[in-house]
Amino acid sequence: MNITLKVWRQKNAQDKGGFKTYPVANVSPDMSFLEMFDVLNEQLLAKGEDPVHFDHDCREGICGMCSMYINGKPHGPKDAVTTCQLHMRSFKDGDSITVEPWRAKAFPVVKDLVTDRSAFDRIIQSGGYISINTGGVPDANEIPIPKKIADQAMDAATCIGCGACVAACKNASAMLFVSAKVSQLAMLPQGQVERKTRAERMVAQMDEEGFGACTNTGACSAECPKEISLENIARLNREFYGAKLKSENV
Amino acid sequence: MSWFTKAMSSNIGKKLIMAFTGLFLILFLVGHVSGNTLLFGTDGGLAFNAYAKFMTTNPAVKILSYITYISILVHVVYSIIVTRTNKTARPVGYEVNAGSTNSSWASRNMGVLGTILLIFLVVHMKGFWYEMHWGEIGTDINGNKDLYGVVAKAYAEWWYVLLYVVSMGFLAFHLSHGFSSAFQTLGLNHKKYTPIIKGVSLGFSILVPAIFAAIPIYMFINS
To answer: B101: distance to nearest CA of chain A, Å?
Structure first.
């Protein structure tokens, strides 16, 4: 396959940046999108040019590092996959593909396609944890949890924090991410102690980071590689209202 | 009360205000459209004029009408605030964006639709609401202000009818997202009830604007 790539190049956070077009020849349909970028970068290195910087880690679709906005969609045209799990067979020979970084005030571009997503880390630090005394290993069934609840909590917990929801949302809202993180703990007994404070703090931190408000377009869930449901956003709204009405934090 | 103002000034809080005012305006539409069906009457507008008198003089309706004015104002002001926040959340846009593949057109253009509806509302209120309250209009045989005459005269103009019909199209799109979206913002999403809300939302956003639009067409044909 022969592909023409139109890629966002930006030297650093201060640089204005712009698109550059690269032809990539002899692309195998079995390559992942990232492997195709590896081929491009080898070509660029051979010519003595600066390779295109992009985030990646596990390349198994579970770490949440890869983050490319491909032809107007986060993680490309396929549903429920990350960029590393997107293969070139999803494109046609001779295709022209535009690749951009996530665009959000809270995700500033570091270089080329790499963005700083530490805003998500700060949201987690503000309340996305449980405080528990470590000690001996508890019995497996010491805390009974209905299977249905466990499944729902697990569904929310599959969020890998890649930021595709923010990238897809026309308001660059982080509601799907925060709602998944609040939900996975709110539904389980272990998460009850900090339940109210968690919702309050994580929502406050989300606003602080400069993410937009949710207008319920549903783009986030449609583009989420883990298909996190919009039910979580409704739950976050409920958790937030409940916390504000009932918590001790004045 | 600082906890309350803090909650309401968060992005979720602002959306909650949008949802509450929006839902109240939906209730208002129910009342408005039911009253308007009197315009289909064949009594020369006597029932409609009596209804218009009741709507402008009854103290309970007066309170409701003030809540409606406030709701419109708050809905508009908060939409501006939220839109500004949302615009600043993405200072650099995308070169290519396939929004149509992941969300409905109405959901992505609520601000534009709302702005058009606001302009329509100004024209609409100048035409009928202002005339009813402060305009110089005659009386019918029952001694009520002849608002029907004002309406009939306005809807004899084809361009006025067209303006109303097109505006109701925009209202339909605005409602098609706003109705169900308000429930999601309130946190009401449930496997049993959300499909019902979505169905009622769709039905409402087609039926109500259709009845509204049918009135000027009906009166134009009869003029």
So the answer is: 8
Mean of pLDDT values over B26-32: 98
Question: A238 contacts in B (CB within 8 Å)?
Answer: 187
Judge if A81 and A191 occupy the same domain: no
Residues A132 and A237 in one domain: yes
Query: Is residue B41 assigned to a domain?
Result: yes
Cβ contact B184–A170 (<8 Å): no
Indicate which CATH number applies to the domain containing B30: 1.20.1300.10
How many structural domains is chain A composed of? 2
Q: Are residues A105 and A125 in the same domain?
A: no
Q: How far apart are the first and last CA of chain A?
A: 62
Contacts of B89 in chain A (CB under 8 A): 104-106, 171-173, 210-212
Picking from B16, B96, B103, the nearest residue to A217 by CB comes out as: B103
Last residue of a domain, one of A111, A136, A157: A111
Q: Which domain holds residue B32?
A: 3-86+107-222
Which of A72, A104, A105 is opposite residue B98, by nearest beta carbon?
A72
How many residues in chain B? 223
Q: Are A131 and A203 found together in one domain? A: yes
- Do A180 and A100 share a domain, yes or no? no
Q: Which residues of A touch B92 (CB under 8 A)?
A: 103
User: Model confidence over B30-72: pLDDT tens digits?
Assistant: 999 999 999 999 999 999 999 999 999 999 999 999 999 999 9
- Nearest Cβ partner for A168 among B91, B95, B102: B102
> Could you give the CA distance from residue B202 to residue A211 in angstroms, rounded to a whole number?
30
Residues of B within 8 A of A237 (CB-CB) are: 12, 16, 184-187
Distance of CA B16 to the CA centre of its chain: 18
CA A146 vs CA A150, A169, A189, A238, B103: distances in Å: 6, 33, 11, 21, 34
| Same structural domain, A232 and A169 | yes
Q: What is the pLDDT of residues A61-112, one digit of tens each?
A: 999 999 999 999 999 999 999 999 999 999 999 999 999 999 999 999 999 9
Determine the structural domain holding residue A77 and report its residue range.
Answer: 3-111
Residue A58 pLDDT class (50, 70, 90 cuts): very high
